[in-house]
Hints:
The protein has helices at residues 4-21, 30-56, 66-80. It is mostly helical.
Amino acid sequence: MPDMSxxxxxxxxxxxxLAKELDENKVTPGVLGFLVFAxxxxxVWALMKSMNRHMGRVNFEEAPDPExxxxxxxxxxxxxx
Length: 81
């Protein structure tokens, strides 16, 4: 199996040279970056609002299970008979 560290080093060397070619003063998120961020924020807000509504409908009290409540009585009757 070939040594992966050599290929990773080669890839990082090429990426570093590409990064040096970019002018740091010209690279900005721009309008597209803002629109993507705003869309994500609106999506998260909508999901949180929906989750709040669904959590309000949840009944957290458990109903007593009739089989579990009657199980000890059946065992007691069976051993007594």
